[in-house]
Amino acid sequence: MEQLAKLPFVFTKEGPTTAGSASGIVDGAAAMMVASGDYVRANGLKPLGKVRGFASSGVRPDIMGIGPVPAIRLLLSQMGLGTGDIDRYEINEAFSSQCLAVAKALDLDQDKLNINGGAIAIGHPLGATGVRLALTCLQTLKRDNKQLGIASACIGGGQGIAMVVEAC
Fold this sequence. Notes:
- By secondary structure, the chain is α+β, with helices and mostly antiparallel strands.
- It has helices spanning 2-5, 37-42, 68-79, 96-106, 119-122, 129-143, and strands at residues 49-58, 88-91, 148-155, 159-167.
- It is built from 6 helices and 4 strands.
C-alpha cells in the first residue's frame, strides 16, 4: 500500500487515478458462439446461458466512465427488474474510481460485483472485453448456482452498454 500511495496521479494533479488504480491494457482474444434457441435445439448444443436483454446509453464524454449507470437502469426498467433481482454484476473497471462510482450510483451489493476481480486484477483486453465480461458472469452464475447476471462496460466517447444473461 505504501508503494501504491507513492504513485503519481494521472489525468489530474489530485487524482484519484494512478497506475495502481487503473487496469492494464493486455493482449487477449475471445470467441463466443451466439445462436437462436431453434439452432441450439436443432444441433443438440448445450448453452452456458441465454441473453435476456440489453441496452445502451450515452453520457457526456467527459464523464464516460459512468456510462454503465444509465445503461443498467434502462435495461432493468425495460425488464421490470430491480438491482436486487440480479445475482452477479460483471462491470468492467477501466479505473477503480470509475467502477466504484458506478456501484455507488446504483447502490450495488459489493458481494455481487466482480466477485473474481475485475480488469485491474486480470487486465483489460480491449478486443475481448465484452466476451470476457459475459463469460465470466455466466461462469460465476453457474458455479454458484445463481440465475441472473449483468455484464456492463463504459465505452470511450460517453457510451455505456449492459446485458442481462441467464445461466442455463
